[in-house]
Amino acid sequence: MPSEEFSAPEVLIINDDRSLLQSRRQLLENCGATVSTARGTAEAIVETILDPADLILIDATNVGPEHGAFLCGIVKRLRPSKPVALLVFYDTEIPPNTPADRVIYRNDPRQLLIEINEMLDGRLKLDA
């Protein structure tokens, strides 16, 4: 029986906080993802155009939910077929009609990986 070839998912993480950006990058790379990053809106737009990732994760914690939703709309217009997740705190009020494909509430890293893996059709290498 031939083995299925693993295709590493590509994830673009957008976050203004360098340490959070790096910790999330490491978390996803440890699960087999190829990760690119962007800090700020301008960099996010450039990366979205240049690097059509399989999933785009926007952390709205630093920029605020309104700006996160705005950026989400820009990314969706640039890459309409790519799933976009908006990462927020539990007590964050999400603007109505947020164009994100999924809102992920910040909690433990394992739950974050589970939700991202669902959006990537199970392509992350998660430990059982």
Walk me through what this model shows:
This protein is α/β, with parallel strands linked by helices. It has one domain (10-119): Rossmann fold (3-Layer(aba) Sandwich). Helices cover 41% and strands 19% of the residues. The protein is built from five helices and five strands. It has helices at 18-29, 40-50, 60-63, 65-78, 109-119; strands at 10-14, 34-38, 55-59, 84-88, 102-105. The longest helix is centred in the middle third of the chain and has 14 residues, at 65-78. The two termini are 24 Å apart. 30% of the residues are buried. The mean pLDDT is 88.
**Mind telling me which CATH architecture this is?**
3-Layer(aba) Sandwich
Number of strands: 5
**C-alpha Rg, in Å?**
14 Å
Element-by-element helix/strand order: EHEHEHHEEH
Work out the oligomeric state of the chains in this entry: single chain
What's the CATH C level? Alpha Beta
The termini sit apart by 24 Å
Largest sheet, described in full?
A: 5 strands, parallel
Count of DSSP-assigned helices: 5
In short:
With 128 residues, this protein is α/β, with parallel strands linked by helices.
Summarize the SSE layout with pairings.
Blueprint: E1 10-14, H1 18-29, E2 34-38, H2 40-50, E3 55-59, H3 60-63, H4 65-78, E4 84-88, E5 102-105, H5 109-119
Parallel strand pairs: 1-2, 1-3, 3-4, 4-5
